[in-house]
Each structure stands twice: as C-alpha cells, then as structure tokens.
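Per reviewer request, we include the raw input and output of the structure prediction for the construct analysed in the revised manuscript.
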Amino acid sequence: MGITKTAGFTTQTTEMADVFKALGHPARLAIMEFLSKSTSCICGDIVDEIPLAQPTISRHLSELKKVGLIQGSIEGKNVCYCIDENRWNEVKQIVQNVSTQLNSLNKCC
C-alpha cells in the first residue's frame, strides 16, 4: 500500500483540498446551497428540502462541519446549522486567486 505524499504541500493547500473533496458530493452542494439561501441557522429543515434520509443528511452535515464549512449549535433538542462565513471567505479567496492566475496565463491551445 502506498502512502499519500502531503509533506510537500502547505497546510492551507491540504485543508482546501479536503474542502473541495467535501464539496464534490451533490448532496453536500445541495446542503450548502440551501444554507446559503437562509438568513439564519437552520434546524431540521434540511431533511425536508434534501431528498435523502435523515441519517444520510447527518453524515453529510458531519463532513461539511469537519472541514469547517458549516457550524452547528444545539438549541433544545435540535442542532442548528449555518455556513461558517470566515471559512467560506477563505474558500472564495483561494478560488479567486487560482482564477486570477489562470486568466493571466498565455493561452496555448
């Protein structure tokens, strides 16, 4: 079995790779889209909006929380979720930086 070589990459690059991997699932993108449309944290409504079982939604929420894209807070018997704006701004900045660099390259094809 081979090992992944991450020693040559910055912590930020490795973390962002994990973020993009988490966003690579359609259910997680749908969850992020749903949360982005809300002006407050969402408690329980996610299961009503995403066509998946509650345990599956919980697993996807856990993955998004693990990479820091969302935050969860307990309110009574519910866990309420919202987008972590600081982390999301980091992601947007990385995408913007890469996009700017790619746009400045000479087009060869």
